[in-house]
Queue: 2 jobs
Job 1
Amino acid sequence: MYTLALDSAHGSLEETLLQEHSVTPEEAEGLDVEWLYHVASVDELVQVRARNQERIRAFNEFKRATEAAMQLTPEQTESLVQQQQQQQRERDDAGSNHEARSALTRAQLQAEQLNAFVVREDGCNTWPTWKLLRVLSTFESLGADQYLVDLYHTSYNTNFRSIPRARESYASALTRLGRVADAIHELTEMRLELPKEAHRMTSLLLGDCYRKQAAVADEAVHFLEAVEAGDLTNMADGAAILQRYRTHFQSRSQLLLPLSLSAVRANAINARRLARTEYLRQSALECHFEPILRILDVKVCGSLPLSLSGPLTQRAWPCSAPKWRAYLNRSASSSSSCESYNCIAR
Amino acid sequence: MIATELSSYGTMARFCSRKLGGEESKDYWVHAAALEAACYQDSATRAELFYLCDTLLGSITPTMFNPSRLLETARRLESIERWLLGVADASRNSELGTRAKSLHSVIERIHHAYEQLQSGTSRGTAAAAAAFSRPYAKRVLYSAAGEEFLKHTFNMRGLIASNRPHFIPGGMSVVGSRVPDMIFSNADKPIFMRLLREWGLLELEDAREFVRRLVGKVRQCFGTKRLQDLHSELHEAFDLASEGATELVGITPEMRRGMDCSTNCATALMLLGDCREHTIEMLAFYDFWQSELLNRSLRPSLRGSGDTDLTSTRASIGDFSEEHFDTVLRKQLRGAHVGVLAPVRMDSKYNPTGYKREGFVPYVRHYSLEAWRAGERLSLYELQNSLLLARYNDGSTRAIEPYWNATTSYWGMDNTDGVPVVPDAERCVELELWNTIEEHTMTFFVEEDASCADESFLTMTSLDSGALEQLHTLELKVERADAFYNELHDRDTFPSPYAFGSGRVDLNELLTLGTLDGGSMKAAEVDDIPARLDEQTGVELEPARVVVKRIVDVPVRLKLLAFSQRSDAPALGDDDSSLRLIGMNLTNVDVAAELVRESMQESRSLPTRREHLLKNLEQLALYCREERKQQEEEKKRQQAAPSS
């Protein structure tokens, strides 16, 4: 059961909802080992067994329900097939991209339907942690970042919201959505609140955020340098570049973000330094090849995409949508900017 | 300067990928990381890049693989290639330019593989996809016997150091048997660390000594001495308690297959385990310890202070010792599923024919060339489970084994009315029958021996130029190091039936005899006295019996089973922060403290809490059996009622 701090200053709707949401036995989640050591009769074990059988039944039922909710209708499947055939006929320049697009559309449809199921069942208010985690994992594997963020935001289950795994997924989704400043805020809070052992990927994710910031700041520097040199041909793109810079750097508490060339340049250098520091921190924590490779990326291939796959971050199913998406994004901007890292190398 | 620093980082990344399983890993990204990291290394040769590329492509299982991963790798390599060309141009470094050219060939190879794979999978036929892997078969770096041994044994590198939980599928979820899926997650790490510290093993640096002492600790945790005799009451109690634990978490025998039944390595230590759990614990502890040993030496090199202070970063990278890493990684503990073979009489698997003395002693089974010539038959069990070794007059040997004959739908050796068919019988000078006593899971201590590297060099051929380059092969030294059947422990009170705890094995026997040396075991030489019958009526006056002549030592052989191979996979479980027991989260549990308390209680001969719990679980299993029996009877009654 939740133990609520009955602090009248925080006596909000949230608390009322939490009180109403009584936690079912399965949410107590787990077999109390200390109790097991003191069991006096088999009857007690028989009761636990019956409860656990109930738990398994509930889990299987929920699994079936979510799978059924994500099932595409015959019309949707038909439309997907037609779309794929159309793309195959066109044989666009990116070769077999039609497969990726089709997989992505399918994943989007499934995520939409799963989200509708969560809303219909009032999942965010009533579901226990294990159900929410399962849905979170499914959203993650489908690459439905926005739905994942919404689920985390709107859930009243504080237990769920405090699980490091859920918080990391949330921060990671924020980064992918371009809300880098928010992601940094969440990850920094995690670092302050949680014990050291719980920081499994925090440094890696923070490193990614800073690296993304550095890339955006570099872009802004190029634009501002051009403006300073009197080149005003790129003003239309410039607005978008500066807006992107703002969303990546402006924190919740910050009202004004200086846009002078020197400030932006300083931010770019600082972000790159921070990224490297975070990757080094992650490397020293677990001596894994992935953070080391990212240090190399920062030094050599600064413009490589952030959606790096690999054992540390790849939590989704093998054929997940994020990878397809990354692939599509890459083929869309096929000429990568090798100049920037050649500059660094020199 | 920067290229030198990056080369050091590349070397570190390669060692880290080796620490995570290296070439044996089932994880695509480990192979991709090794290849990528090698591109930065000054010392990486063209042959090495091609070798790593082929290992990467050879690791792909076409039907389960998302081809876009190859594109991701190719794209990352292209970035490195451009950087190499840029630096080579700027610094007029021809070596870097050559490496960039080699890299270009590697990238082309990956693109080619991508296209092949893409066309194979889009056609959707298994054959088309399987055709893909042929040109990229993994190249051999070990001697043929070594390669055969490695193929059928496994370690837990990668599984231990991974940030995501990994699991080894057990029999419960696959075929509905006893062993649950074993999982190693973040929840296990602090417990393993604490236990190793508590046992005084963490600071050890000698791998052999570590294994020797670890065997004792693991045996103590599992109370192994009471389990070695499979026919004892104590082992029956173990089976019952195991059944009770599965029932407790709500899984009935019918529900076992396909069920989430992951059990943390740490949890198993606290409860129960047989040979399978012993092996997994041994491997987990060993690889965890080895990983910690390496991390300790690597960490100072990775504590750089960012771009602003390059001097200190370079100084710390300078501390990194490749030699130390290499020396540590050359020693491994490897697990294997083996068939235990010996010339003893068998009723059925796990049930030899024999008699009880202090322990169970099986009878010797003689089957020689003379017996074969006299037309002596083999039993059905022997035809279907044994190995017949034929030795020929030219010194060669041939293993005659059961196989699946699709035309006759029969599993067994070729035979004529129970007498096995021996090929080239006229040249045969000796026949040996090795009966399978049981299937067992055990560990071997393996050391790569660079000093006796084979003279025969492996030739690497690059696709584009036809140029030849060479890599040398390595020899393996292998010793038995089993924790379960270990003759070095409890030899006076509970002696092990087999001597799997020590002794060197000759890997070449895998090629000549098909099996490895498993030491020896005690068996009884007997005389068979046939039944005495009444000559007129044929009535049995005295039953057939055996008379034990003497106890002898018979040799034991170990056969690496076909399914014995690395089988770990990422566990996509939801939350890996708590310990699990057969698919259920545990609360209020402190494994390390419990084990320490238990060893104190045992040293004072006090009853332990585990004993109490296991007794209760036995009772629960009996209760469930009874309940199921009643339900079945009730069902039968109900079915019978309408018809009556």
Job 2
Amino acid sequence: MLVLSRKINQSIMIGDDIEIMIVDIKQDQVKLGIVAPTSIKVYRKEIYDEIKTANIEAQKISKESLKKLLDKAPKKNEKDKNEEQ
Amino acid sequence: MNKNSTTVKNINLGSFNVDETQKLIFDEGIFGFEHIKEYYLIDANLAPFMLLQSIEDEAIGFIVCDPFLFFPDYEFDLSEDAKNLLGLDKSTDLLILVIVTLSERIEDVSANLIGPIIINIKTHKAMQYIVNDPKYTTKHYLFSNK
């Protein structure tokens, strides 16, 4: 990891197209301004990590769990009323 | 044999015949699986759920569903950037699905509402979107009020 120190209003360039500026510093919080092309996605890391973890958990599809889910879930359409118990 | 049909396999659920209308292209993949760009959306007799299955890796598949079936008040703004990435020009071309995490305990089955899968049904482009609203998380329980 590259570690740099910046003061308020100073910036960092990443490649030619991405700029990160220190917009404000208050006690324990730093406000960052980010300029990047729309094709580059920018997220808070903990959100990225949370979604990644959830995706990895969701990848595990066990037949038993799936069967329990299908037994419990509502059918999408009400046409088959004679299947209701 | 229909030359447009293909077989896609899930390691737990078996093989399915699919056609190109079921293919979804994720230019950036989904978080944690960025290397997988092509999935097929398969009925698999799971209604109201579906299987989002990678054609490249039979171990990479997800159970997905229409979030509004369980969470009728679910709503979020879709950024202009996301709409452009999907080539979305009509809101009627937009399909939203969410990934479901299964569990042995039915009350622990949850849907990821902060990272929905958004799909342009005309272009078949899709992405995992991050909803910018702190009331949504990765775990919204389908069958309990936790």
